[in-house]
Design a protein that fits this description.
The complex is a heterodimer. By secondary structure, chain A is of the alpha/beta class. Chain A has eight helices and eight strands. Chain A has a five-stranded parallel β-sheet, sandwiched between helices. In chain A, strands 7-6-8 form a three-stranded antiparallel β-sheet. In chain A, helix 4 links the parallel strand 4 and strand 5. By secondary structure, chain B is α+β, with helices and mostly antiparallel strands. In chain B, the strands form two sheets. Chain B has a five-stranded mixed β-sheet, with helices on one face. Chain B has a two-stranded antiparallel sheet with strand order 1-3. Chain B contains eight helices and seven strands. Chain B folds into three domains: 8-59, no CATH class; 64-139; 146-294, Heat Shock Protein 90 (2-Layer Sandwich), CATH 3.30.565.10. Helices cover 55% and strands 13% of the residues of chain B. In chain B, helix 7 (185-202) packs antiparallel against helix 8. Chain B has helices at residues 7-19, 23-39, 43-59, 61-105, 111-138, 150-164, 185-202, 256-266, and strands spanning 146-148, 169-173, 181-183, 208-215, 221-228, 270-273, 282-288. The chains are: A alpha/beta, B alpha+beta. Chain A binds chain B through residues 9, 11-12, 14-16, 18-19, 59, 86-89, 107-108, 110, 112, 114-116, 200-203, and chain B through 85, 88-90, 92-97, 99-101, 103-104, 125, 128, 131-132, 135-136, 139, 141-142, 144.
Chain lengths: 206, 297
């Protein structure tokens, strides 16, 4: 599975690459990971080369929305995109999800969970989804539903991880890995979509 | 284009507001008019607003002093907030990178390495807590207000701290019924949690922390005092105590009481420290009552 990580902080990028390169992917496969510090370069690379998943930082350089620019340039044919940010806010989460992000992860999770575990779990699930639905593009019905109901979800579950299946919330919890494991037990055949919701900055929801 | 003399009725209305004692509305009207005049490059109007504001300032000096103080505090707070946001972001990135490097070290099994890794992990966890406080401080959350009975809310909080307090008695004193207040439960829980945490931290073994709630005169709100039997707050620190980064207890970010004040003031309330230095601290929080008709049965 090919993964592209975009982050303008070299020390951060190095660790993301390393964590992914040493992790086990779905069905015992390894990940092949590339890292880029510049989002324009990343967009060019995405046009030229196939990737399964993109991991993108939100705030790069002085622009707080550079990550969003990347998201908005992607099309339905683009790789699944995971946002990873040290500057989480609900408005930004809402925008990211509406722009088609698969997940919105915090570098310093509000609930104290391990950010690498969260990232690797989200990545693995994205890859599993890609393998199971090679033609699905980035439009995933449950994710689509979650994006449309983000306001409600945030009011009920801000700071939590929620699982959505067939247009309803089927589970919620504090850590990504724990909820993913629980959902796998409960729904072995169909994996619910799992998204994490930031805790802070509740004023700007709709 | 604005009509000539468009500002006169506006100014007349503002003067009327001043005469009937609605000073804050008068000031708001005049400053908004002034902004409009400057935007329209209407010198006459701008001058008129300026003169009237100067006149009102000399007539109502104490009120304008308060307005000025609040404005200065807001400017300062905004600066701290933006600094906090940038710090949270930059420290957060470095924290994330450190945790990544630590994942590699975790594989080592020499006993010294295991202990060092555990120590670093514990330190980074504290850094994480501080980053989260910076984040929380940097966003000025509008409270989602609901009419609330503070008694059960404070009761739950006190019970929570009774479980963790060691050798310190935690108690609540509240009358059977209190006026409902218009509050955001999560934020108020956070604010009083911080005050209780603070009180427990400063109270020596054998001491006592008491939360006292009472109705304010003429039902205009609720007064909640958090008292402890610690060393108290020296008189010269009583006001500065609530400034960001003024006092830091070990492991804290120096933002605790600043966040508490921000929350209370966002609720239209007030907070003061009124304890006796040497005898204990007493934090007084006043929260306005909810309008009668919206109160839950």
């Amino acid at each position: 599975m090919k993964v592209l990580a975009i982050d303008d902080q070299p020390e951060v990028l190095k660790q993301i690459e390393k964590a992914i390169a040493t992790a086990e992917g779905p069905h015992g496969r390894r990940y092949e990971v590339a890292g880029l510090a510049d989002h324009r370069e990343a967009l060019q690379r995405l046009e030229a080369e196939h990737f399964d998943v993109v991991i993108v930082d939100m705030v790069m350089g002085h622009d707080e929305t550079e990550g969003l620019t990347v998201l908005q340039k992607l099309t339905n044919k683009s790789p699944i995109t995971i946002v990873l940010t040290a500057y989480p806010s609900i408005p930004n989460c809402v925008e990211s999800m509406r722009a088609g992000a698969w997940d919105y992860l915090e570098k310093v999770p509000a609930n104290g969970s391990d950010p690498y575990e969260n990232l690797l779990t989200s990545l693995r699930r994205a890859c599993e989804f890609r393998i199971a639905h090679p033609e699905a593009g980035r439009t995933i019905p449950d994710l689509d539903w979650a994006q449309k109901h983000l306001g409600e979800l945030l009011r009920e579950h801000a700071g939590e991880v929620v699982a959505v299946l067939d247009e309803r919330v089927v589970g919620h919890g504090t850590t990504y890995a724990e909820l993913a494991a629980r959902m796998k037990d409960q729904y072995p055949a169909t994996a619910p979509t799992i998204i994490s919701l930031p805790e802070i900055d509740v004023e700007a929801v709709e | 284009m604005l009509d000539q003399d468009w500002h006169l009725p506006d100014i007349k209305k503002a003067l009327g507001l001043f005469d009937s004692g609605r000073l804050d509305e008068g000031v708001a009207l005049l400053t908004a008019g002034m902004d409009r005049a400057i935007k329209a490059k209407d010198r006459n109007a701008a001058l008129a607003y300026d003169v009237v504001l100067a006149l009102m300032r000399s007539e109502h000096r104490p009120f304008f002093d308060l307005v000025e103080q609040a404005r200065e505090r807001k400017i300062k707070l905004d600066a701290w907030r933006s600094l906090s946001a940038r710090s949270a972001h930059r420290i957060g990135n470095q924290l994330f990178a450190s945790l990544g490097a630590l994942r590699t070290l975790r594989g080592l099994d020499a006993p010294e390495a295991v202990e060092a890794v555990a120590d670093i992990e514990a330190s980074l966890e504290r850094v994480g807590t501080i980053v989260k406080e910076f984040q929380r401080f940097s966003v000025n959350e509008e409270p989602a207000l609901l009419p609330t009975d503070l008694r059960p809310l404070l009761g739950d909080l006190v019970r929570r701290y009774q479980r963790v307090a060691r050798n310190v008695e935690v108690a609540i004193e509240a009358p059977e019924s209190l006026p409902h207040c218009q509050v955001d439960r999560n934020q108020i829980d956070q604010a009083f949690g911080e005050l209780l945490e603070n009180a427990l931290h400063h109270t020596p073994p054998g001491g006592k922390v008491v939360v006292k709630a009472s109705a304010m005169d003429s039902g205009k709100g609720v007064l909640v005092a958090v008292e402890d039997t610690g060393p108290g707050v020296p008189a010269e620190n009583k006001e500065r105590l609530f400034e960001a980064f003024f006092s830091t207890r070990p492991g804290g970010s120096g933002l605790g009481l600043a966040i508490v004040r921000q929350i209370i003031e966002n609720h239209g309330g007030r907070i003061r420290e009124t304890g006796t230095p040497g005898k204990g601290a007493r934090f007084e929080v006043e929260l306005p009552a909810a309008p009668k008709q919206e109160t839950n049965p």
